[in-house]
Amino acid sequence: MQETRLIAFHLKDLAWEWLETDLCKWFLHMGKMEMCLAIPAEVKEINGDTARVDFGGGVLRDVNISLVDVQVGEYVLVHVGYAIQVIDRKAAQETLQLWREILQAEPSSL
Amino acid sequence: MEGETPNFRDPILAKRVAEQIQSIAPPFSVKICHVCGTHEDTITRFGLRSLLPERVDVIAGPGCPVCVVPSAEIDEALFLAQKGVTIVTFGDMLRVPGSTMALQDARASGGDVRIVYSPRDAVKMAKQEQGKDFVFFAIGFETTAPATALEILNGPPKNLSFLISHRLIPPVMELLLGLGDLHIDGFIAPGHVSTIIGMRPYEIFATAYRMPTVIAGFEPLDVLFAVSMLLKQIREREARLENEYTRSVTWGGNTKAQGLIWKVFDVVSGPWRGIGRVPNSTLKLKEEFLDYDARKRYEIKTEPSRDLLPGCSCHLVLIGRIRPPECKLYGKVCTPASPRGPCMVSSEGTCRIWYKYNGKRKF
């Protein structure tokens, strides 16, 4: 039962990911992005307080970077047109690695 | 491993975490509360509740910045629109009903109401159209307030003022704890609010309230990790503040952004729609910026407001007392196409999220 749920989760996830990513990008392209989300983007170019960032899939935008200290090549979280944080990719990898270790270390029948 | 894009949707890892959660969940009922629409979206979209044991309940608190704007404030914006002021705001706000109608309805009677993605766009608009008066209806939590603050500090054009409706999350979390009958056993703290405010404001929950609190990111694995961390604490009768979202949230948060908020705003107590007065939870422009306060610039007159239309249970959904399908109007009279309350309008509203992924299905 658990297996089925997780397979369904995986498939649903893939379908949604495709749909949502495309919708997200379409919204960005149309300049209609809803305010809620903060989305990661790669900094391509910096011009004073503004940076040109890449959200992936060829979606480029200018965002305000007054709230962060960032360099080209780093990733930022963007919310309503402002970078609010530089994403620590090393921390991201460490989080995943830590959990992989914890869960492999768990005995299979707890 | 090096340079590999971190994947927080890895289904194999998710399976492992879900199995671990099944085995470490304590033998009694546990209620976990989050306060973020984006968390509810991830949870509902990826069916995360179905991966948890039945005795572990995850409820949605008032994490929708649009939903908690009181009707009275929407009525203020409507008053201005009807007086010929151009109202500029975020997309979701257009369809939320005030006491009688929504901002988009003002357009029908000649009101100029415009959507922007960023407060900066409002500034640009006002600069480009000097002959018009603009008001930016500034909503959002701590994630958004720095953007408004920045624009005010940059010296907006004289034909622009601000209707401030920013709210703070930790105070409403405190209020939820004060509602003794909610029986919350742990908090999932919001990721992007925490990116700004850091971990420190949540310390009080672990120390004074003995409430396990974990700050989580927005991918499905983030939420599952956070649930696991909380259950481990609860099982071991601990109460600590932990950070799952280390890639974005630091102890001190974004101090530049915080500095901007405190330069421009004071904190006051104020009403949240459907909830009532929440102490020390709303932002108000400081004395030296009152020239840009729309409430000072215009004499706004509104009728007594009402937050909820008859039958609407948003006030119960907002604090996680009921799930959307338990509202009598959900899926029948109230749908995204014809919403009766803010929870069904906003993309971060619990009812909207449930309807988006589950339709009319009852639980």
Architecture overview:
The complex is a heterodimer of chains A (about 110) and B (about 375). Chain A is α+β, with helices and mostly antiparallel strands and about 110 residues long. Chain A has 2 domains: about 35 residues; about 80 residues, SH3 type barrels. Chain A has 2 helices and 5 strands, in the order αβββββα. Chain A is elongated. In chain B, the strands form 3 sheets. Chain B has a 5-stranded parallel beta sheet with strand order 2-1-7-8-9. In chain B, helix 1 packs parallel to helix 10, helix 2 packs parallel to helix 15 and helix 6 crosses helix 11. The two termini of chain B are about 40 Å apart.
Characterize the largest beta sheet of chain B: strand count, sense, and whether it forms a barrel: 5 strands, parallel
- What's the quaternary structure here? heterodimer
Number of DSSP-assigned strands of chain A: 5
Using the coordinates shown, work out and report the CATH topology of the largest domain in chain A.
Answer: SH3 type barrels
- Uncertain regions of chain B: pLDDT < 50 for 5+ in a row? none
Radius of gyration of chain A (Å) = 18 Å
What's the alpha carbon Rg of chain B, rounded to whole Å?
21 Å
Number of helical segments of chain A?
2
Query: Can you give the helix content of chain A as a percent range?
Result: 40-55%
Could you name the CATH topology of the largest domain in chain B? Rossmann fold
How many strands, which pairing sense, and closed or not: the largest β-sheet of chain A? 5 strands, antiparallel
The N- to C-terminal Cα distance of chain A equals 19 Å
CATH superfamily of the largest domain in chain B, please?
HypD, alpha/beta domain 1
Q: Would you tell me the overall average pLDDT of chain B?
A: 95
Strand content of chain B: 15-25%
